């Protein structure tokens, strides 16, 4: 770094006030007879000046680095706020992979009514935005007996161009790892759920009420190798709009 700074010094790429210091020193010694003692004194003075200049430059560089670091931090903070992970369904299908099921089950046992929330996903790039919740130990109605599953519509920037209320059929399947085991399926058609229309209206700046099933699948399936592989569980969501 010091070599680079000295190069900048020699190439004249210094701030004006530093250049004036060098010229002032050069002018004051231009017409003085150069005895050995005088040269040694000038040499020492120049060393002090260069060290001072280097320190000034390092301080300036440090301030710039600090400012750039602060700016980067602000940018990263803004980006992190905007970089919510949202998946897009492929041909109307989204598969949610729940990892570390054994730990999740233990945590849910410690905190009754605790649920696991999926990342948000879209029915298409400019389609409906939604997510699902799983209560591995069941909700209040099916505690320790059944896994409960709930679905929720989320506000999205393209809601204004979509048709409302939400009108579609959604299917939720707990996928078996063992092909001999049956898939666990639950589905609904929003047009038939007349008592829960608040769940299907256009979200007004906040998520809608949830809609789902209390007894989606027996809790015992979490321990079964027929549905759990590498400590992971898979739930498939299908959209038919």
Automatic annotation (TrEMBL):
<dbReference type="GO" id="GO:0043122">
    <property type="term" value="P:regulation of canonical NF-kappaB signal transduction"/>
</dbReference>
<feature type="domain" description="MATH">
    <location>
        <begin position="91"/>
        <end position="239"/>
    </location>
</feature>
<dbReference type="Pfam" id="PF21355">
    <property type="entry name" value="TRAF-mep_MATH"/>
</dbReference>
<dbReference type="InterPro" id="IPR008974">
    <property type="entry name" value="TRAF-like"/>
</dbReference>
<keyword id="KW-0175">Coiled coil</keyword>
<feature type="coiled-coil region">
    <location>
        <begin position="36"/>
        <end position="70"/>
    </location>
</feature>
<dbReference type="InterPro" id="IPR049342">
    <property type="entry name" value="TRAF1-6_MATH_dom"/>
</dbReference>
<protein>
    <recommendedName>
        <fullName>MATH domain-containing protein</fullName>
    </recommendedName>
</protein>
<dbReference type="InterPro" id="IPR002083">
    <property type="entry name" value="MATH/TRAF_dom"/>
</dbReference>
């Amino acid at each position: 770094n010091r070599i680079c700074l000295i190069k900048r010094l020699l190439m004249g790429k210094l701030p004006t006030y530093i250049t004036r210091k060098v010229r002032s020193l050069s002018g004051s010694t231009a017409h003085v007879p150069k005895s050995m003692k005088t040269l040694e004194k000038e040499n020492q003075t120049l060393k002090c000046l260069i060290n001072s200049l280097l320190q000034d430059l390092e301080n300036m560089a440090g301030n710039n680095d600090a400012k750039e670091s602060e700016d980067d931090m602000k940018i990263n903070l803004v980006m992190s706020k905007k970089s919510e992970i949202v998946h897009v369904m492929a041909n109307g299908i989204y598969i949610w992979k729940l990892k570390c099921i054994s730990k999740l089950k233990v945590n849910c046992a410690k905190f009754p009514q605790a649920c696991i929330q999926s990342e948000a996903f879209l029915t298409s790039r400019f389609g409906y935005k939604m997510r699902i919740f799983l209560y591995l130990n069941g909700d209040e109605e099916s505690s320790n007996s059944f896994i409960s599953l709930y679905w929720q519509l989320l506000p999205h920037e393209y809601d204004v161009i979509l048709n409302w209320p939400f009108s579609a059929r959604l299917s939720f399947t707990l996928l078996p790892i063992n092909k001999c085991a049956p898939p666990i399926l639950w589905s609904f058609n929003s047009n038939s759920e007349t008592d829960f229309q608040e769940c299907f209206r256009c979200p007004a700046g906040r998520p809608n009420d949830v809609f789902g099933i209390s007894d989606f699948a027996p809790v015992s399936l979490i321990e079964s190798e027929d549905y759990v592989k590498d400590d992971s569980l898979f739930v498939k969501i299908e959209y038919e709009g």
